[in-house]
UniProtKB/TrEMBL annotation:
Residues 37-254 form the DUF7136 domain. It comes from Sporothrix eucalyptigena. The chain crosses the membrane at residues 268-291. It comes from the Eukaryota. The keyword Transmembrane helix applies. InterPro entries: DUF7136 (IPR055560). Residues 1-23 form the signal peptide. This is DUF7136 domain-containing protein. It holds the Pfam family DUF7136. The keyword Transmembrane helix applies.
């Protein structure tokens, strides 16, 4: 996976351009000081959800949505996951796979695409063989960290979050009588992420959101000022058509790293298949060739 990670990193620019050619990419507006326009940083577990699924035919996609990643970069947001099995008899969990989802402390800021609900960057990984021939209860344990300023009133604005890790959990079940494991937005009759496809309240996926009001610079470092708050979404997030097509291509390719794993994530939804590599290379060639 080390070679794959290096390879996908090299293809990031070309693959991102390819995505913008087939979906509306949103460029967030910056303030006069160069900081992103205030708004809400949003993270969502798109799939799997808190449901019971039939055993997947091969790898299970792990899909996450990140809103306002430009704000996340200011906040040095880092998000990781652990795919775990749960034993209710022993009260213990067992890690089946793990890896980073996004690192905005050191990594590039992914582009966002417009959906019917909001503008998101979709981040995709795969379970590989971790769930092969397994039934039972599982969970995605999401750990995340960030740095921001918060007002403690008595002490005023203080920098918080440094060295602090937060955790959220998304449970799901795999059983022979479960529903098909289909990522929202990939259904045959999907409206491709429009607000008309709301999930019922008890089936809404987990998420966290941080509302940013403004920024403060101390000793040359810019910090976001805000508070942990409601996501403000009444509907579940569905993947955009480009992400849907990428996931389908990976799951249909038996030789893909996603189906051979686990072993490591594929950052920013870049797919490690021969098909995606060729598309990304061609897109990059056309793009950079047009600039020369």
């Amino acid at each position: 996976m080390t070679l794959l990670t290096r390879f996908t990193s090299a293809l990031f620019v070309a693959a991102a351009w390819c995505s913008t050619a087939s979906a509306a990419t949103i460029t967030e507006v910056a303030t006069a000081t160069g900081t992103p326009f205030p708004g809400t940083l949003f993270f969502d577990v798109v799939f799997p959800q808190n449901r019971t699924y039939a055993p997947p035919n091969g790898s299970l996609p792990l899909v996450f949505a990140l809103g306002r990643p430009d704000i996340g970069a200011v906040m040095q947001l880092v998000v990781n996951y652990s795919l775990e099995s749960i034993s209710f008899s022993s009260g213990k969990t067992k890690t089946l796979a793990s890896g980073p989802i996004v690192n905005l402390k050191t990594g590039p800021v992914p582009a966002t695409t417009s959906t019917g609900i909001n503008n998101f960057a979709f981040l995709v990984d795969y379970s590989g063989k971790a769930l092969k021939e397994k039934t039972g209860t599982f969970q995605l344990a999401i750990s995340y960290s960030y740095i921001k300023e918060a007002n403690f009133y008595s002490a005023g604005w203080q920098i918080v979050g440094a060295g602090t890790t937060n955790n959220i959990f998304q449970q799901f079940t795999i059983a022979d009588d479960g529903e098909a494991a289909i990522v929202p937005g990939m259904q045959a009759n999907s409206s491709n992420s429009t607000s008309s496809t709301c999930l019922t309240p008890d089936k809404l996926p987990i998420a966290f959101a941080i509302e940013v009001w403004d920024y403060d610079t101390r000793d040359g470092v810019t910090y976001a000022r805000g508070s942990f708050g409601d996501t403000g979404l009444s509907c579940a997030v569905e993947v955009d058509p480009t992400t849907s097509a990428s996931i389908s291509a990976v799951l249909a390719d038996p030789s893909s790293a996603a189906n051979a794993g686990p072993g490591g994530p594929m950052p920013y939804g870049i797919i490690g298949t021969a098909t995606a590599a060729v598309v990304a290379f061609m897109a990059g060639s056309l793009f950079f060739g047009g600039l020369l």
